[in-house]
Structures are given as C-alpha cells and as structure tokens.
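Help needed: design a sequence for this.
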C-alpha cells in the first residue's frame, strides 16, 4: 500500500532530522512513481548536498524513483512560515475552490499569518484575503529584472 503524503513527509523529516539539521524540506511532489524532494538551507543548495540527502533517503528508493532538488527561483509556498518569508514578493496562488468567483490569483503578498494570506492583485482587483486551508498551490514569481 502506498504511503500518504503526510507519511512521506514524516519519513523524510525523520531521516534528515539528525544528520541534516540545517536542511529544510520545502516540499514533496509525487509524479507517478517519482518522488521529488525540494530542500533548502541557509547559504543555498549545491549538488553535494543533494547527493548527501538522496543517500540519507535511500530507503524510499524501494517505492519511488527519488529526486532531490533545490526549490528553485519560483519557490513553492506551502507552510505559513514560507508565506511569511515571502511577504513583499510577487506570488501566484491557486485555490482548491473558487474564491470570489476565481481560483487563480497573482500579485504582491502583503500579509501572511498562520491561517491566511493577503495578496494585492496585479490585475487591479484590489486585495484578496485567502484562507491557508483553501490554497491548493502557491509559489513565488521570480522576476529577472530585480
């Protein structure tokens, strides 16, 4: 039987807790039989760190083709702390169900707490407050001209 996302997150966190205390598991993504683990740490992620983390997660290779990567420039936002760290940046947010008649929101993140985020929309729609529990996916929109 395949593990749930929560079980996979717990297994990854437990495997990395002691030897990689400075490493943050940003996100997990299941793509068929492939598990992608996105990690970050102060100072950034390099190939040596990805290889070391991959080795620490070797037990998951029985279930998945494993890939370890940095979150990239368009960093995913999943946890309240991720949103709080991104305040002031441009974000794209998709909700699970329509909020105010739409599911896709893009703009500057102007507020974030444990239960909600506030986005100043780029399309002139003002500000929208979205409940954290309603967010299906969100990420930072990196602008190369910064």
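Sure. Designed sequence:
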């Amino acid at each position: 039987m395949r593990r749930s996302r929560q079980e996979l997150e717990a297994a990854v966190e437990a495997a990395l807790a002691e030897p990689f205390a400075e490493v943050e598991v940003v996100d997990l993504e299941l793509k068929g039989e492939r598990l992608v683990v996105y990690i970050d740490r102060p100072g950034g992620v390099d190939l040596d760190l990805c290889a070391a983390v991959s080795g620490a997660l070797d037990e998951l290779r029985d279930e998945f083709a494993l890939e370890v990567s940095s979150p990239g420039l368009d960093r995913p936002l999943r946890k309240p702390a991720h949103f709080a760290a991104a305040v002031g940046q441009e974000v794209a947010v998709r909700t699970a169900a329509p909020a105010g008649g739409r599911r896709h929101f893009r703009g500057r993140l102007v507020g974030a707490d444990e239960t909600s985020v506030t986005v100043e929309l780029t399309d002139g729609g003002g500000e929208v407050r979205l409940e954290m529990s309603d967010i299906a996916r969100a990420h930072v929109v990196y602008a190369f001209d910064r």
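The chain has a mean pLDDT of 91.
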